[in-house]
Amino acid sequence: MTVQQVHVRRDDLSKAEMASIEPGPLADGAVRLAVESFSVTSNNITYAVVGEMVGYWNFFPAPSGLGIVPMWGHARVVESNCPDIAMGERVYGYLPMGTQLDVIPGKISAGGFTDMTDYRQPMSPIYNQYARLAADPEHDPAHEAERMIFGPLFKTGFLIEYFMRGQDWFGASQVILTSASSKTAMGLASVARQSSPGIKRIGLTSAGNVDFVKGTGLYDEVVAYGDLGSIAKAPSVSVDFAGNAGLLRQIHEYLGDSLKYSCLVGVTHIDERGGGIGSQTDLPGPPPTLFFAPDHAVALFKELGPQEAGKRMAAAWHGFLSSVAGSVAVERHRGLEAARRTYLEMVGGQVDPAKGIVIEP
User: What is the mean pLDDT of residues 247-267?
Assistant: First the structure.
């Protein structure tokens, strides 16, 4: 069966094209997955923007100069040369913006496995893990869309809060979240509300998104980007999900010595990222520091153990789902061309925070 993929120009992320390839024979011990569904979010745009720096282009090889943006979603086993993985089994994990993926399962348990394909081994093991849905405690058939839309982003928010709380929030009394309508920011705000109630949560967003962000109920204060001066100059930490170099400079210059820590997470304002994440070294206050969630996830599981870490994350996840119920309408699209169009709209900044886009290739 011909495999379809969306190939992105690595030197011009606003260019993406459909491609068809003929798959070779399935390798010994390998499993062929047919992609059933995935969500396209601002998180995927971040994968593309920092693809060269972090290595996101290396997960799913493409022709020279092109890249395949990783997605989170569900897939079904359509061919298996692995005796422990059966035909028809469903999994959740890291998938290409395409219709098919071959993996080599290893470290197999009832709940999941790790892809041992050679070219994926240099990257963080977090991305190589696949959950087997039949025995996955996080799986809820009624909330598969929410897991794709919010799940990876929520976990990043959970890890940021856990890190900040472990540092006593660097002595701050408030946290300022840019791109407050983004799903990762909403995840962090929700976990902070649950686990760090003493920290004031301030959401920065575009004027057009103020009502939506206020409607989530996750923030103590919502401020439009143009009204930055209304924020109290109290001891603060900033968490930048936007990647807008100009905005980051404004925050640093406005807060000055009141800014105790500057955390960089994602890139939602692709056309305004200036020299790129972490490129500004002349800002007043603390140097912006990139938060790489996979490293923090590995550290969390080492510190707490898989069972306790999973238990805490699950409790916070259910609290988050209760918070965002009804705030985002799931919009489903059929066909990989819809994924290409959605990706390009997001690269162009056309993102409606009230919609969660699910693609069914």
Answer: 91
